[in-house]
Amino acid sequence: LKNLRKRDESMKVYNLVVAIMALTAGTVGCATTPTQADTVQTKVNEPEQRVVIVQQIVQQKVVETEKIILKDAAGNVRFEIAVKEDGSLVQTLRDAKGIERLKLMVDAEGVARQNFFDETGTTRMGSYVYPADHTKFGGEAGVGFLNKDGKSVMQMETHKSGEVSHTFFDKNGNERISLRLLNDGLAIQRFRDAKGTIRTSTYTDTTGETAFNLFDAQQRVRFRSIMLPDGKLVQSFISKTGKEKESTMLEDDDTLTHKVEKGTVRKIVDSVGRTLKRILPGDSEE
Question: What average pLDDT does range 142-156 have in this prediction?
Fold first, then answer.
């Protein structure tokens, strides 16, 4: 089938060249040019009919192929577009040295991609759009920026659910800062250490509640500050087991309430009681 297709393409080109040469030379006779519609015959010494022939040839010419290559004057491949064996369509643009600088493609999974390369051929920026029915990243679209070593330094994404994210990476490609706007309206920012462990986070939700959290090396919340929608401020200290050991609340009427876990309260009261007994007269237990 491929051989027949190539032979058909060759015949189209051959017939086109023959017809144009005949028309240009003005040879008396007939020029026959097969087309998909019909066969056109006319005397080539009639100017008006020669124009009609050329117009019909140009309008009906269709080139079918699986690969196109363009070269510069020095013979270097500068442009290439091809259908790969896996069904992906790829368009590549190269510089004068033959290095890929831009690639556009629709891969076998239907993902549209665009990659930009530096003069060394290293990817520096890329964008993508996944089809809605993709099994893993359905409806996701994004753009990424990479450093000279080809490692991600910044990425922006939008998801089918409506979630939007903006992520920053260190020079080794490790995620360090992330900004996310979730589908339920929660806006959250996270900071990670060099190992990827979350150490700090802030958020605000649709009610206006805002919070600041500190995490230990095991990614457990140990300290939290919250501003509630009604204006109250709460600060909490949390144990490794997740129990709130101590908290302070500033009410909207400026009343300050301090709460301490029961065992700790008993120790403080006992100590204060003993001190007071030494300085107060008599046997007062107040």
Answer: 94
Sign (positive or negative) of CA dihedral 267, 263, 242, 201: negative
CA–CA separation, 66 vs 57, rounded Å?
22
Mean pLDDT, all residues of the chain? 80
Instruction: Reduce the DSSP state of residue 76 to 3 states and report it.
Output: coil
In the block, tokens 């990827």 appear at 196
Mean pLDDT of 259-267: 62
Sequence letter at residue 33:
T
Q: Can you say whether the dihedral through the CA atoms of 35, 38, 42, 47 is positive or negative?
A: negative
Contact 200, 188 (CB under 8 A): no
Strands of 39-107, DSSP E: 39-40, 67-71, 77-83, 89-94, 100-106
237/225 Cα distance (integer angstroms): 9
H or E segment and range at residue 223: strand 221-227
Q: Is 241 exposed, middle or buried (0-12, 13-18, 19+ CB in 10 A)?
A: exposed
Residue 108's contacts (CB-CB under 8 Å, 6 or more residues apart) are 84, 86, 87, 88
Q: Which residue has the higher pLDDT, 271 or 234?
A: 234
CB 164 within 8 A of CB 182: no
Tokens 């930009």 found at: 116
Q: Token pair for residue 245?
A: 């050991």
